[in-house]
Amino acid sequence: MPKKFIISNNIRTLRFFANEMTQQSLAEMTGVSRQTIMAVEAGKYSPSLELAFRIADVFGVTINEVFSYEVVDQTGKKK
Fold first, then answer.
1. DSSP string, 25-40
2. Sign of dihedral through CA atoms 52, 57, 59, 65?
3. Under a CB-based contact definition with an 8 Å cutoff, are residues 10 and 62 in contact?
4. 46: nearest Cα among 11, 1, 78
5. Which domains can be identified in the chain, with CATH numbers?
6. Where are the alpha helices (DSSP H) in 1-75?
7. Is the pTM of this model over 0.85?
8. Is 13 exposed, middle or buried (0-12, 13-18, 19+ CB in 10 A)?
9. What's the first-to-final CA gap in the chain, in angstroms?
10. Which residue from 8, 15, 19, 65 lies 20 to 30 Å from 43 (Cα-Cα)?
11. What is the pLDDT of residue 17?
């Protein structure tokens, strides 16, 4: 059965601890639109690897501290 990857992120938490940084500020610092940051943060859009690195760099953390993923099968069971 094909596997599905579910990507989650800690962007909202990182923004909060970065003096409640706005989505607009993060967008400007990473060179994308606020709508892109909003979609990534909501899990509706998976960022490019380059954008993922830029986001991590803004917060001074690794990509693994920003993004995580789970592998599930077609039935929704975690692998």
1. HHHHHHTS-HHHHHHH
2. positive
3. no
4. 11
5. 4-64 (1.10.260.40)
6. 11-17, 23-30, 34-41, 49-59, 63-66
7. yes
8. exposed
9. 12
10. 19
11. 97
Tracing tokens 């709508």 back to the chain, one arrives at 35
Inter-residue contact 67 to 9 (CB < 8 Å): yes
- Per the DSSP assignment, residues forming a β-bridge with 4 are 72
User: Can you read off the two tokens belonging to residue 43?
Assistant: 């899990």
% of the chain residues with pLDDT over 90: 80
Backbone angles phi, psi at 76, to 5 degrees: 90, 5
- For the record, the structure tokens of 60 come out as 């001074």
pLDDT in tens, 6-35: 899 999 999 999 999 999 999 999 999 999
The CA angle 32-38-10, to the nearest 5 degrees, is 105
